[in-house]
Amino acid sequence: AARLSRRYRGKLFHRRSHLVFPTLDIPALSNMPPVEWLIDDIITAEGFGITYGPPASLKSFLLISWALHIASGTPWLDHKVRQGGVLYVAGEGVRGMGRRVRAWLRHRGMEGVDLPFRLLPASVNLTDPEQLARLVRTAVATAAEEGTPIAMVVIDTVARAIPGADENSAQDMGRFVAAIEHIKAHVACHVHGVHHSGKDPDRGARGSSALLGAVDTMIRVTREEDQITVAV
């Protein structure tokens, strides 16, 4: 440092503020707002969640129900809901989505009601930077067209969103998590993935435990005949 010219030291000092991360002191931490919810005690606002279960556990039916409750602002069971737009990325089961949505609307007497709910009828490769950027632009454009901010983006399923990746690899799963964080940062919404359980459902969602470490909420769905159990 002693060998640096006075002029260079001045530039170095001037730039130093750009070389450090911002931090929070104790008063700032104490004044941070509490967690906000899209669905009370289940789905956090601007968070990251995963719902998993074995095939035919009705997890996609559950996500459609949550999505439409959010889009309509109506309570889900006894849980309060904050209204907002929803973009549902359906990587599989697209043909049945229309019937499920119509059934939900009919059951609740909302046929003909225009809700801020959009279905993207194709998988999006979240490990491809171009497709990831296109998804973000789609969410932003959808919010502008609907006149309602996007509150939740659903990724159905995680496997379809990371084609060719090794779900058991912490590195590959880390790339998926990074993509989710990118969506959250640019859309300011909750992102929720639909995932499969492993061979032993009691051991959690399929693949690397890096996913469990990254989520705000992990939700397990099990089914017995016509009843499903949701464990948060």
Task: Describe the 3D structure.
The model has no long low-confidence stretch (mean pLDDT 90). It contains eight helices and nine strands. 31% of the residues are buried. It is 38% helix and 21% strand. The chain is globular and about 55 Å long. Strand 8 (217-224) and strand 9 (227-231) form a beta hairpin. Helix 3 packs across helix 4 (94-107) and helix 5 (129-146) packs parallel to helix 7. The protein starts with 5 loop residues before the first helix and ends with a strand. It is of the alpha/beta class. The chain has helices spanning 6-15, 26-30, 59-72, 94-107, 129-146, 158-161, 170-187, 210-214, and strands spanning 37-39, 43-44, 48-53, 85-90, 117-120, 150-156, 190-196, 217-224, 227-231.
Name the overall outline. Answer: globular
Number of separate helices? 8
Q: For the residues shown, what is the average pLDDT?
A: 90
Assembly level: single chain
Characterize the biggest β-sheet: 7 strands, mixed
Q: What low-confidence regions span 5 or more consecutive residues with pLDDT below 50?
A: none
* Structural class computed from helices and strand pairing: alpha/beta
